[in-house]
Amino acid sequence: xxxxxxxxxxxxxxxxxxxxxxxxxxxxxxxxxxxxxxxxxxxxxxxxxxxxxxxxxxxxxxxxxxxxxxxxxxxxxxxxxxxxxxxxxxxxxxxxxxxxxxxxxxxxxxxxxxxxxxxxxxxxxxxxxxxxxxxxxxxxxxxxxxxxxxxxxxxxxxxxxxxxxxxxxxxxxxxxxxxxxxxxxxxxxxxxxxxxxxxxxxxxxxxxxxxxxxxxxxxxxxxxxxxxxxxxxxxxxxxxxxxxxxxxxxxxxxxxxxxxxxxxxxxxxxxxxxxxxxxxxxxxxxxxxxxxxxxxxxxxxxxxxxxxxxxxxxxxxxxxxxxxxxxxxxxxxxxxxxxxxxxxxxxxxxxxxxxxxxxxxxxxxxxxxxxxxxxxxxxxxxxxxxxxxxxxxxxxxxxxxxxxxxxxxxxxxxxxxxxxxxxxxxxxxxxxxxxxxxxxxxxxxxxxxxxxxxxxxxxxxxxxxxxxxxxxxxxxxxxxxxxxxxxxxxxxxxxxxxxxxxxxxxxxxxxxxxxxxxxxxxxxxxxxxxxxxxxxxxxxxxxxxxxxxxxxxxxxxxxxxxxxxxxxxxxxxxxxxxxxxxxxxxxxxxxxxxxxxxxxxxxxxxxxxxxxxxxxxxxxxxxxxxxxxxxxxxxxxxxxxxxxxxxxxxxxxxxxxxxxxxxxxxxxxxxxxxxxxxxxxxxxxxxxxxxxxxxxxxxxxxxxxxxxxxxxxxxxxxxxxxxxxxxxxxxxxxxxxxxxxxxxxxxxxxxxxxxxxxxxxxxxxxxxxxxxxxxxxxxxxxxxxxxxxxxxxxxxxxxxxxxxxxxxxxxxxxxxxxx
Length: 819
Known about the structure:
CATH superfamily of the largest domain: FAD/NAD(P)-binding domain
CATH class of the largest domain: Alpha Beta
Structural class: alpha+beta
Radius of gyration: 30 Å
Number of helices: 24
Strand content: 15-25%
Organism: Novosphingobium flavum
Oligomer: single chain
Domain Cyclic nucleotide-binding: 354-455, 478-602
Keywords: 4Fe-4S, Electron transport, Iron, Iron-sulfur, Metal-binding, Transport
Number of strands: 41
Helix content: 25-40%
Domain 4Fe-4S ferredoxin-type: 640-672, 677-708, 709-737, 774-807
Shape: globular
Protein name: Cyclic nucleotide-binding domain-containing protein
CATH architecture of the largest domain: 3-Layer(bba) Sandwich
Mean pLDDT: 86
CATH topology of the largest domain: FAD/NAD(P)-binding domain
């Protein structure tokens, strides 16, 4: 005869345990079904000695079980004791394989063929048993593992952790904790942010990297797993590193087939989607409830609160509000209309496009990390050139974007349900325009971390942000009076692709009739170089920065690709289907004229090269090799770089002295360092990269981009050194600002002070009063705020020092040829 209970709880993780404890406390007949031989397999599988966090600290714990931050072993021990004391009914090795029936009369079949009958079912099974696996060649080799039980087991190994969520970071920290183990630990992050991890974990990881215990590899992903080594795709191309073991912690997904077999629907077809839930955690199958990580709410405190709440709901306590209700009520209090929390959440979820496939629980969690504000008509939400990288969502009303700085009356409207601020989110640049409320408006502002986490964990939200950003980039690049409706077909067919450094996007000679032979590409991030085969050599034609497009010549002329386009650095491109682009050109003659004008400029470059291929082959070689040298030395991702013409340089060091005199006695320039080709020298000075590596791991967000594109470090720098380690060009130094020195006139007439330039260490020590000043990061800021522009260029008596932007690269290469 089958066991019969009021509620069957499947899974004994934090959510399931809390639900069972509440049922026991209420005297509700229940059974907790656990497929292993121990409680809380989720916590049990944490690495030994792991410190478990109890976040968010502002959230009240509502559970019959205790939970405070502490060691894994202590938490498990406490829960085992409390389960016994509370009289929780547990069945171990009870794996549920099938659920049949309806609300009030469910039959749960276990793997051992026994049956449990229950009026209601609570799913608390989590997702850890279904990890995302490595999909690169060699990903199935035996030294790839998806679990780390005891970091102390591994000694003298090269270990690579793939994934920078909390699990990946904690595994890396555990493997590198004991220097006596002599492990060499690297962790791979395919981006530059740590959107999935807690701030405390990110801080610990950065500290470990600063101490040299862990190597953080940003913008890096596995390309191929081999015996004893790992091939990586990095921002600068492919690289092979030693590797004895891979710990892959790339997230997990719900055991969807089983859950759907129970009659439960998901929010979307995406693998990482979550079940559709009501405010009381009920699924689309009445009588079956889902809580915990399977509901998209993975933090332990949240899970335990849900376990408590769902049993209270089943017991008839319909007045119970979620534990985060007071926090959200306070957050929504300034909004007009005095709506309750549930109504505001329903409004946000239904109106804001990127929220539409979030469950009620996911939306609540997102709101805890967001700000919601009303704005009056005409009120500025943010100003042009303002610092900020958050994302804004319009819940009610509309806004207007002032697209012409010289004439604020020229605006473009953005309506209810859409987003804005995505350019700052993606690029980290200052705001490109002023945005004002066009009418009474309510906006939800997502912090950069909250927005990136949403994009990473909710595929539908990520697609919506990508689609909107593509649409706006198309309108910005092609202009010509285009509307959203004009580019709708292009946006629908567009595809964002990541290309590694050196990877070919378009190949010279490809037929326009081949698949993709007429596709057009927008460089969304990074940069491209264009080459042409002449005389058996690949000759450099041009540099193409982000915000440009390539490939239209084959489409318009219906001719083979005339040149090869490949990534100068790791880049992102938007592929636009050629057929759709051709239809747009046919409808918009003005756009066709603009495209033909761009083609004519490119043909001029081709003619310049081809006209010299016979009589001046040496000059073409010099031009091509010089241009390639500039790309290889970081100019490919620069927005402004310093070059020195060594045929003019007399070695006076006026550039360094002027730099020091303009910056508190500390030079941002090392003239003699760096590399040289022919007569062009690239000294050690900041390139002000399009996507600065130094910004990637700055804890206080002290590195910013100024109104003229300069990348600068403000006074909030804490001297952690992350920027210095992340800069691939060695242009950032850590140093203390020296004591203020007397004026130049005092030095000339009275011999006071150290003279022009950077003071010597001896003078600095003598005049520091014996007090050691804290070090801070120091780098070129293009003399921002100093009249006349960069001091290094102004101080050069021979004109040898020049600042170069991407648009001037060809001129520099031509200058090399002319000389």
